[in-house]
Amino acid sequence: MPEARRVELLAQIREHITVTLSGAQDQGEATVRTILDRLGEPEDIAREAGAGSAPAGEEVAGRLSVGALELVTVVLLLIGGIVLPVLGWLAGVVLLWASARWTSRDKLIGTLVFPGGLAVAAWYLLFWGGSSVCTSDGACQTSGMSAGPALTLALVGSIGSIGSAAYLLHRARRTAA
User: Fold this and answer.
1) Which of 62, 115, 132, 137 is the most exposed place for a label (fewest CB within 10 A)?
2) pLDDT tens digits for 109-127?
3) How many other CB atoms are there within 10 angstroms of residue 171's CB atom?
């Protein structure tokens, strides 16, 4: 159970005991034990408070699960634009914003940290080639992008896309169940 919830629950139990004792004629140990017996077993109180009754390992595994919809969303954001140009990535964005799993901040990161996913990086790698047109007097004019900037943009795009996908998967695991 998260520490904040545990502190809140203990405060509620103390308050209940204090209020019940203040209304009792006898405030001795027997009365306190009766109040505690009526509250129930600590495991039952924790379960009802939302801690669950699963062993710690099972609880952690449950929190770390990512649903198929979230996985498909992240895959579409990452490579959807390669599989189905533009529409694949847009489908991922729609699924991202329709999901209740992520916060608005997560959705903005998934949408705006290198939009288009790896498709944009692939585009830079495929179409970076420039061309030169030379006139008869020997003057040449180059158009397009040289390899250095194209590779840099492809690298930045790849890191941004993979980073935002990893972030979304991490957030989906943290907010699962």
Assistant:
1) 137
2) 999 887 888 887 887 777 7
3) 20
